[in-house]
Protein: M20 family metallopeptidase
Amino acid sequence: MLTKLNEREAVASCERCWEHEIVPALHDYIRIPNKSPAFDPAWRENGHMDRAASLIAAWCEAQPIPGLTVEVVRIGNRTPVILMEVPGTRDDTVLLYGHLDKQPEMTGWREGLGPWEPVREGDKLYGRGGADDGYSAFASLAALRLLHEQGIPHARCVVLIEGCEESGSPDLPAYIDALAGRIGKPSLVVCLDSGCGNYDQLWTTTSLRGLLQGTLDVNILREGVHSGVGSGVVPSSFRILRQLLSRIEDERTGRVLVDALHVQIPEERAAQARAAADVLGASVVSELPWVKGARPVTGDTAELLLNRTWRPALSVTGADGLPPIASAGNVLRPFTKAKLSMRLPPRLDPRKAATALKEALEKDPPYGAEVRFHVSEPSAGWDAPATAPWLEAAVRKASKTFFDRPAMGLGEGGTIPFMAMLGEKFPEAQFLITGVLGPQSNAHGPNEFLHLGMGKKLTCCVASVIADHAARAR
Structure:
């Protein structure tokens, strides 16, 4: 049996809460440059993470929710975690998750915009971290507040907001272990750190890719030499790097050539991609900021979605050893380093993938060069368990009620390490993974924005699903 929020009251209350309370708080949050530890090694000394945690905790503590407790938890020198609990009327637990750390500034913000200065244009709130993932704590509490305003029962709810997701969540396992007794055993996990195909309906994330990062280091000389002396005799370290990359990726198609990095795509996920392609159409391509005349790797939209969610993909995200053009002399450089980012499909063991990739790159180096691939800690992907009938009905109803459109499911190309961790720890739990990162919201890049209309409707949908979780037949 499903419950029903009073739609009109819920929408009106959510509008007031977002406009008068959440949006002003998000303005203050965006102004804090609380970059994740991977991008700010001096985060403790700078104090921005603590400022962000304090700001969010203070807002949450002020919410008129009976029995609410809010605590900023710190273990040693790890990033802080905000742990909140709301007692429920059912002997069960719902865990809601988000994060408060941010990606770095990135260049390319258009005139009038910047990472640390909030700017609102209609339904878009620009600034770093608003959509990824600062809104999550506010939306979680606002959803629970809606239920209390209407007297609708719900299970005990625990809200966990971590501080190092953008660094791969290295601190999170310690907190999950230390707080295990307070978290309990959730039967529903709600994660608000994912994306949406459009802003017109509720999107649930059915899978996430993993991530394998590392530095490929190619050394051929002990020091640089004049190109007039060395070129034609010494192979360029850059050319060797190109050869190595061609071992693992077809440069014409982008297909990853290491078989151990592929998995069999489940037919259910392929069918979801085809259904999403029918709904999204050309927007899958048009939402990206192409230069004039550029085109995607294929014209098949369903294949593009599967490429983005269930196939490995390589990106070169940084390089050392290449001087700026203005100071680049005629020198044969001694080394080239490249930062590699390999997205891994769900269901793939990331450590086995790391071993296979390292072997492919280091084996039989061209010209006897020194080649090393230094692997960072890889993150596993995640594939959702089979959806329970009650959750499928609840999601469908929420989308119809608050968007007047059917709900859609689709995999995401990013990584949320927490989901793989929880999937292993609570194999019987159901998962509602969703978010506001839709077309052109550009998380991690310039001009990131939070779509406020989506945030408001998503808040109502989360409240509705949590209510239905408590009312389900067990």
Summary: The mean pLDDT is 96.
